[in-house]
Amino acid sequence: MTDARHNILERLRANRPATTPAPATYQKPLGWDREQRIASFVERMQAVRGEVHRIGDGDWMDWVNSELPSRGLRRVLVGRGDIGETVAGRHAAELDVRRYEEPIENWKDALFHDVDVAITGVRAGLAESGSLVLWPNPDEPRLMSLVPPAHVAVLSVDTLYENFAELVQAQNWAAGMPTNALLISGPSKTADIEQTLAYGIHGPKQLITLLVG
Amino acid sequence: MSTTSSSTSQDQSRAFHARIDDALHNDQMRTNFRRALTGIMAHRAKQFPDDAQLQALRDQARAVRANSLVRQPELLEQLERKLTENGIQVHWAENPQQANSIIRGILQAAGAKTVVKGKSMVSEETELNHDLEQHGIEVIESDLGEYIIQLAEEPPSHIVAPAIHKNRRDVAELFKRFHPEIPYTEDINELTNSAREILRHRFATADAGISGVNFAVAETGTLCLVENEGNGRLSTTAPRIHIAITGIEKVVEKLADVPPLLEILTKSATGQPITTYFNMISRPRQPGELDGPEAVHLVLLDNGRSRIRVDAELLDTLRCIRCGACINHCPVYVQLGGHAYGTVYPGPIGLALEPQRIGLDKVGTLTSACTMCGACGEVCPVRIPLPKLINRLRAEAVDGHPGQAGLPGHGSLRKSTEATTWKLWRLLYSRPGLYRLFAASATRLRALTPSKLGGWTRYRSTPKPAPRSLRELAKKEGFGND
Known about the structure:
The complex is a heterodimer. Chain A contains six helices and twelve strands. Chain A is α/β, with parallel strands linked by helices. Chain B is of the alpha/beta class. Chain B folds into three domains: 3-45 and 314-398, Fumarate Reductase Iron-sulfur Protein, Chain B, domain 2; 68-303, 3-Layer(aba) Sandwich (Rossmann fold), CATH 3.40.50.10420; 431-476, no CATH class. In chain B, a hairpin with a 4-residue loop joins β5 (215-217) and β6 (222-227). Chain B is globular. Chains A and B meet through α1, α5, α6, β9 and β10 of A and α2, α3, α4, β1 and α8 of B. β9 (180-184) of chain A pairs antiparallel with β9 of chain B, so a sheet runs across the interface.
């Protein structure tokens, strides 16, 4: 409605406040080293029932192959990127691996009902808040980290930033945002009944971070 | 003052007091509120162990919001330009009717019959669900709290925790009534799990998703959503259409403005360092992408906001980021609950916002639901001077100079008896001779004080002047006039 647009903007311009407030100042970096970042990330993620496993220099596929079958997470969804290639090429025989390679409309029902766990990469981690930062893309689409009951995220220690403010600046997000960018801090939860925390309402019930490096 | 406006303001006041009466006599609900709010306040306090850091963060958040409001028309145009470049369609609505008809039009054009909704207070302003249902479109609220009150056919009683007035037994009864196939339980984890199962196929099959917006970034054309459950992400990702609706004040200038606002929002609202999900949407599905909606729309709603700019003081109201901290800390809200206010936004922010948005003549009586304790102003993350605003609105509502301010319903609550009383009071206190005569007669004739003083003596004893005034006693003891 062009009239509505015109009227609203006219009213806003006519009633412009006379004073200009002081500009905002922004947070200063915390100056955390690698170990402090790791410690904070692990603590914050665990505080909201996120699982974190330090892989060190080891092979995260060993964790996938030994843990997922024993937890009953056998139907595995992966994307088309490096993580997907690795899982598809090296998964244990008990795991049934499916690639996300066609539009959601073709297999929505199966995604909602026939997948136990999705494994994705992570763009970065945030130490102060214990968050995973994802930029879903054609190789690892948006619903992977959302619909399956469990999500395994492979995070490199080298991509741990202090906080969101540092990340946005360091990676110059203002220059171009993706279709969807996400911060994920723990499994899905709610406190809508008596302010009592309950996990696993609509998104993944389990969020497992494999911290590599 | 005309008879019509007098009867309107009396009706307004009577209806408000009837709701207050109901609320105060609902012991179970008051217990539910007390318990919930005590918990939330403690959680918030834990997030701010260092007061200096909290104050610095508040300054930052206030500055970000204040600057966005000053440049609001330009930022809205920039937002529209960037969103359009990104492929998101922008719509403008002056009032709820326009907003609803835009949304209905989008859905009907796409043949959408079912909608999953993420939480949106702005859609409560427009009563969107009601409108869509009247036109044969099924709407499912997917936030757990919203789903509960949708079953109960009630409006939200809190802007962040909509079902805060319900306890686990209320929820169990609702689930039993609407989902008899699920075994009865009062266990919160089991109830939550039931909701997951109930709503899951809704997400998988809905034609469209509707959501609110927490921040809209002009610089990049990005819509930001803050949530814990994942229902917001599902509503904005699984269906083929996503429609977001928001108030025009939610625009911020740049991406660097978002991290401080996000931090202080989640800490102030629920006492969480961050919510589970922070969802930033800048485009519909692009070629090659395998999921996400093919069409994304943003509806920008005014609904009285653009006139809340009479002066810099009132403009402060629009800095609000809807965290609900003022509501959680309000000693009146904890007694009344959210429904007694009768407006979309309850509590201190409701007292400040709704009379400006809707008119003092319609909801100005709300401003009496305040003890001026100042708690709301102290916790507000963007430093809205709520007590000052509420006081200002009280004064505007009874002001005797019509046309002096641009507030809708200015002076509409003025009562001639009240105005005369205060005029006499002023006269008395500004003339020493008159004052002494009054004090002497009030103390000597104390026996004549009426024993019934209307509303005051319904719950309190009758105040009686002392036999001698303090001034007289002091004089007798040898104290001078200084």
